[in-house]
Task: inverse folding
């Protein structure tokens, strides 16, 4: 039997506005607890929310980037529930009239695009941060006391909900990476998972191939990296398939992952049908983005990451194109002349390993370095890359150093090494061809890294054949 | 010697301008009056004896629902006992900026839920006309303060009639402004889509003066708007050209006392003499459905607004054994009185999944019908008139055991409140020796017209606002 995974995502993105969503407190997460607060975000009696215009504008911008329709009339609702991190006893969110609806993203894949529906993108406020003291693993159960830090309370958050259009953990991971790249490029969020400015939940179900309806889904929460999420999804898909194949039924439940300990099994909780008693927030008037604003923002949209992958795919193939774009390195790629795959590979490998900020690099100069990479010593190449982000970087300095490619100079060294290593030579000739690397290493050591590796390889093979 | 029972804010202003009295002396005179009569009436929850420092104008009293920096603000609830705000409500700031000194905070029904000021956690306020009777509510502390000469004027708040009804029962003037004209920032919220702060005074002109101070858009309250025209002090003594509609259902409703109807009829006759055209009109659905509609919308919003009183950040915290849920439960059990509990339950129910459409959703639709019905009436008339309260002040305890009888006290004030319209209550005579209020309802933002009509009628009626027993 063939099983088809069905995956949908709910993503929370923190907007990096200067001030909070409904008050003028600074958005600052790493200040001492409860120093970034005011009557509004502490929910003192009589305080009232005033919406942050920038946050509304940025949500519209994101909605447009995700191909959404922008509502002419959007409404904030109150979502009512009691919890110490929720000072008003309700969260101001959006319910049935969100800012952005019915979008779609053409998610590129190795075998063509998948249209991923965007059900909605709405604006809401974040909760405070709670720290539970004295309980196991910082959980509320068994805690002796809980501390609440309201610095985060009321910071702006966009929630994006996709349709259940994703069919594999790779799709989900790719979508998340491209979404992250999108918000970063729009300049509206740092989208850093470690800082919690990008969070997501995953809904997973499986069904038999050809089946049209959806089966019971489970919700995966608290995953702290894209790779971990992909693993978690895989594990959940396998678990559900096993249940069905052994004649069981999947139960609706939520799986909470421990962000501090990826190997710990997730904690399960029954889906409680909580009644949030939504109603239109009477302290706010409806949000009605002006058409001119929406059109101006539409005009300012950069080319989306998914379109750029398709454009670059023709030059370097899908996998490299995807890597370049999701790593935010395709812009440098485009302004670095040279053999396309070589440029892409250097950008993704050596340059990335050197920790150079792509935005700081002069593409023309980098191109020169890459063009000469087999002609100059490895050490010189690495040095050149490491320096390529510094101001006034010129390739010339590094290109002056040439490698030893002269056979008459290399042969004596090679001969000496082979004669000093008779045992290894015999082993090589006996079939242990992996030893070639050993001989190359010895030659490089002798020449202080300046030997041209290609020539050394050729000469070694020839001599070892004899 | 300042006669605080008689002195209007306008007269007090003249005394100040002529230098015959200082702001501190004026402030002191009202505190002295309070020292004399507050024990009997229980008007003030606290008084401010700061020598009117920095003040240049006439002192004012605030209903205890208005946040005042550093001064206890309880909204009549035990759950907020001892709570001292770190900020001033916008209306408090505006009064301060206008040079008014704060006399004190007045008693009220807990969270403004009530029509008699008996639902206060700090004991009931008594009516200055007859201390065995209630002053109305929920702003009964403010209206009684003005009637008893313990404040020249005061601020109240009105959700379903909480300024108009106690103004009527205490024989003073009260304005419930158009929704959105006075900032709610810093006003302890009851029902956000209905709450509105307004002035209470002895005369219509005083009421207009205080409204001048507090009205206008506030960037801290998104629901406020710029006034289409500035507040004017009424001058005219006639009502020529004014078309007054008398909605049948508001004037013939069951429960309106004969003595009340009689005084209202007399006032309308006087209006005709002053040149007004009087005609009948009808608001059938507004009156039939107003009360049930209000008792779905207001408790629903209240159930959410009162969720913040959880003992975590301020106010009362009870600490039973158990987890945070137990703390919430006990804090709210100990801190809220019966009426807030009743309304939190009603509202929670009305908003619940499966009930929302039938209750809260339906009430919102009815609210639109009520708004439309009023708009239709205002195509023919400039002002609508009715009694403010079906009855004169009732005796303490008479309705505390019967919430529905208590709710009926707002039968006539609720419909126009749901429509967001302004309403002015002026005293128009006595029945059984107790004041009767005339309610004048206007179009949105027509406060100036209401002041004009109220002022002309007030002069013609010549009502003596000093309670007979205190003269």
Result:
């Amino acid at each position: 039997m063939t099983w088809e995974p069905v995956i949908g995502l709910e993503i929370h993105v923190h907007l990096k506005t200067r001030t909070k969503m409904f008050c003028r407190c600074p958005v600052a997460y790493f200040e001492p607890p409860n120093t970034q607060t005011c009557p509004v975000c502490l929910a003192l009696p009589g305080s009232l929310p005033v919406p942050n215009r920038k946050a509304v504008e940025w949500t519209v911008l994101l909605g447009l980037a995700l191909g959404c329709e922008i509502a002419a009339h959007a409404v904030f609702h109150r979502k009512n529930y009691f919890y110490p991190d929720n000072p008003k006893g309700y969260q101001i969110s959006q319910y049935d009239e969100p800012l952005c609806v019915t979008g779609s993203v053409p998610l590129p894949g190795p075998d063509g695009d998948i249209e991923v529906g965007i059900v909605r993108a709405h604006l809401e406020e974040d909760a405070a941060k709670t720290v539970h003291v004295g309980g196991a693993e910082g959980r509320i159960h068994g805690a002796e006391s809980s501390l609440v830090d309201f610095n985060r309370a009321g910071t702006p958050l966009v929630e994006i909900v996709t349709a259940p259009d994703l069919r594999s953990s790779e799709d989900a991971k790719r979508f998340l990476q491209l979404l992250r790249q999108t918000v970063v490029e729009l300049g509206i969020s740092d989208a850093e998972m470690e800082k919690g400015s990008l969070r997501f939940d995953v809904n997973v179900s499986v069904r038999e191939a050809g089946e049209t309806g959806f089966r019971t889904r489970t919700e995966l929460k608290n995953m702290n990296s894209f790779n971990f999420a992909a693993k978690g999804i895989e594990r959940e898909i396998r678990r559900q398939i096993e249940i069905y194949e052994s004649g069981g039924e999947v139960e609706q439940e939520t799986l909470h992952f421990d962000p501090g300990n990826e190997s710990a099994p997730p904690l399960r909780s029954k889906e409680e049908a909580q009644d949030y008693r939504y109603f239109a927030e009477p302290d706010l008037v409806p949000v009605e983005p002006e058409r001119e604003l929406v059109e101006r923002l539409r005009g300012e949209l950069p080319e989306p990451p998914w379109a750029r992958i398709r454009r670059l795919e023709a030059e370097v193939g899908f996998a490299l194109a995807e890597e370049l774009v999701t790593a935010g390195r395709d812009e440098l790629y485009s302004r670095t002349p040279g053999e396309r795959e070589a440029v892409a590979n250097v950008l993704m490998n050596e340059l990335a390993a050197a920790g150079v900020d792509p935005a700081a690099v002069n593409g023309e100069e980098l191109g020169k370095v890459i063009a000469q990479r087999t002609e100059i010593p490895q050490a010189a190449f690495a040095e050149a890359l490491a320096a390529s982000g510094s101001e006034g970087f010129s390739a010339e300095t590094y290109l002056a150093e040439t490698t030893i490619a002269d056979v008459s100079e290399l042969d004596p060294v090679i001969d000496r090494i082979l004669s000093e290593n008779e045992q290894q030579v015999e082993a090589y000739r006996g079939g242990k061809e992996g030893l070639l690397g050993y001989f190359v290493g010895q030659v490089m050591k002798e020449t202080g890294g300046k030997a041209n590796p290609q020539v050394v390889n050729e000469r070694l093979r020839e001599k070892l054949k004899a | 010697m300042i006669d605080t029972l008689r002195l209007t804010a306008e007269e007090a202003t003249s005394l100040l301008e002529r230098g015959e009295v200082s702001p501190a002396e004026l402030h002191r005179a009202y505190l002295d009056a309070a020292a004399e009569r507050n024990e009997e009436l229980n008007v003030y929850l606290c008084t401010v004896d700061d020598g009117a420092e920095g003040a240049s104008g006439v002192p004012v009293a605030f209903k205890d629902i208005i946040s005042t920096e550093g001064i206890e603000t309880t909204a009549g609830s035990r759950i907020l006992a001892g709570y001292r705000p770190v900020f001033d409500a916008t209306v408090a700031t505006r009064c301060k900026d206008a040079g008014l000194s704060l006399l004190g905070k007045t008693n009220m029904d807990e969270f403004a839920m009530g029509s008699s000021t008996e639902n206060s956690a700090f004991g009931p306020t008594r009516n200055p006309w007859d201390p065995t009777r209630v002053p109305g509510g929920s702003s009964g502390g403010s209206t009684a303060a003005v009637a008893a000469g313990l404040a020249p004027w005061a601020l109240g708040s009105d959700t379903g009639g909480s300024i108009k009804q106690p103004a009527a029962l205490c024989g003073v003037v009260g304005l419930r402004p158009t929704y959105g004209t006075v900032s709610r920032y810093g006003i302890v919220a009851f029902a956000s889509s209905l709450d509105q702060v307004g002035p209470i005074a002895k005369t219509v002109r005083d009421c207009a003066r205080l409204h001048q101070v507090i009205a206008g858009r506030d960037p801290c309250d998104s629901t406020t708007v710029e006034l289409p025209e500035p507040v004017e002090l009424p001058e005219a003594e006639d009502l020529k050209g004014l078309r007054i509609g008398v909605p049948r259902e508001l004037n013939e409703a069951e429960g309106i006392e004969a003595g009340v109807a009689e005084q209202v009829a007399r006032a309308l006759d006087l209006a005709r003499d002053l040149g007004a055209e009087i005609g009948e009109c009808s608001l059938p659905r507004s009156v039939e459905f107003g009360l049930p509609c209000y008792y779905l919308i207001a408790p629903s919003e209240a159930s959410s607004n009162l969720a913040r009183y959880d003992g975590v950040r301020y106010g009362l915290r009870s600490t039973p054994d158990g987890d945070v849920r137990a703390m919430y439960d006990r804090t709210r059990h100990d801190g809220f009185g019966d009426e807030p509990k009743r309304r939190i339950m009603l509202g929670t129910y009305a908003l619940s999944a499966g009930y929302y459409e039938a209750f809260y959703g339906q009430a919102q639709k009815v609210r639109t019908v009520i708004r439309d019905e009023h708009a239709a009436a205002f195509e023919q008339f400039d002002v609508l008139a009715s009694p403010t309260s079906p009855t004169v002040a009732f005796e303490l305890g008479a309705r505390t055991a019967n919430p529905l009888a208590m709710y009926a006290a707002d039968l006539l004030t609720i419909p126009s409140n749901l429509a967001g319209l302004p309403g002015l209550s002026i005293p128009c005579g006595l029945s059984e020796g107790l004041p009767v209020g005339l309610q004048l309802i206007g179009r949105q933002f027509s406060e100036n017209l209401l002041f004009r009509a109220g002022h002309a009628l007030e002069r013609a009626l010549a009502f003596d606002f000093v309670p007979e027993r205190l003269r």
Remarks:
- Chain B touches chain A through 45 residues (CB under 8 Å).
